Amino acid sequence: MEVLVVNNYFWKDKRVLITGHTGFKGSWLSLWLQSLGANVVGYSLAPPTEPNMFEVSDIASGMTSVIGDIRDNESVKKLFTEHKPEIVFHLAAQSLVRHSYDAPVETYETNVMGTLSVLEAIRSVDSVRSAVMITTDKCYENKEWLWPYRENEPMGGHDPYSSSKGCAELLISSYRNSFFSKDSYSTHKTAIASARAGNVIGGGDWAKDRLIPDLLNAFIHKKRPLIRNPDAIRPWQHVLEPLSGYMDLAELLYVDGMEYAEAWNFGPSQLDAKSVEWIANEISSRWGDDAKWVNDTQNTHPHEASYLKLDSTKANIKLKWQPRWDIKDAITSIVDWHKAKLVNESMRKVSLMQIEAFSNAK
Hints:
This protein has helices at 8-11, 24-35, 53-56, 73-83, 97-102, 104-124, 160-179, 185-188, 211-220, 240-256, 276-287, 313-318, 327-342, 347-360; strands at 15-19, 39-44, 64-67, 87-90, 130-134, 191-197, 199-201, 226-227, 233-238, 263-266, 273-275, 294-295. By secondary structure, the chain is an alpha/beta fold.
């Protein structure tokens, strides 16, 4: 089957607004769009970690970066009015499962009311033609079964983070039906879709309580990290995989309107749904230097799903989207990225080279 590739020509001079641009995924997306000639505006809190991808790869140098809170309705509306975006990517979120147990109110306010702020801002202007609202694979009611989840499965969520994303999906669907429906498209001319990706990994991720950042940080400091839930299965994928899907989807929404205004899964090949233990072993092997990890059997941890897969058949067929790097390619790129940083290479250049390598992969 022919595979759709990101259309470099489409993005030149497009006015694009990204919420959450200082985060891990938002930084990679901002850099990719900059490289294609888009006029990128970002709105987000300050980078969430130190160090962080946004500063290490000098993402701000090629865009307009606005620091603000997605929950501030008036500021978000003002941003939309001032910059009149044609395309919106909403990534701003409280994205950590474990933190959601410590800060449930913040999690719901950010992930639900923050999404509402963006949807209301889209309503307040007439410039937006295409909006991709990013949620998560964890928005589904997880039954811990062997089968991957499809877009028509019920929303749910055991922990506050997962539940908040299920709520966000319901909100997006409601606004699409109420204010951006197919029947009234000729009036509003705005197509809105939601996108659900797997466990996204890549160079430049320093988030707390995430497997690969914890592993690499320990290995860099010659330590043996403690790993929880080694048997848990996740749909691992390099960050550029779903981002390519988001960009393809945004273009199709812009060009073909309501035909693609629905929910989409962007997950890895089923062969790349690996256990935490497998990932930890592969990272250790690729890093070298006698890197090893330890199973954390002493501490008690809050509930996290043990088994989760995504069915991306709809995106494979209707969008002609397919993963480009398998899990071993992804891990190699991550190790290469962080080793390049250790020897003080230009991480903006390294990141752009990885985007180019990914784009050219068959």
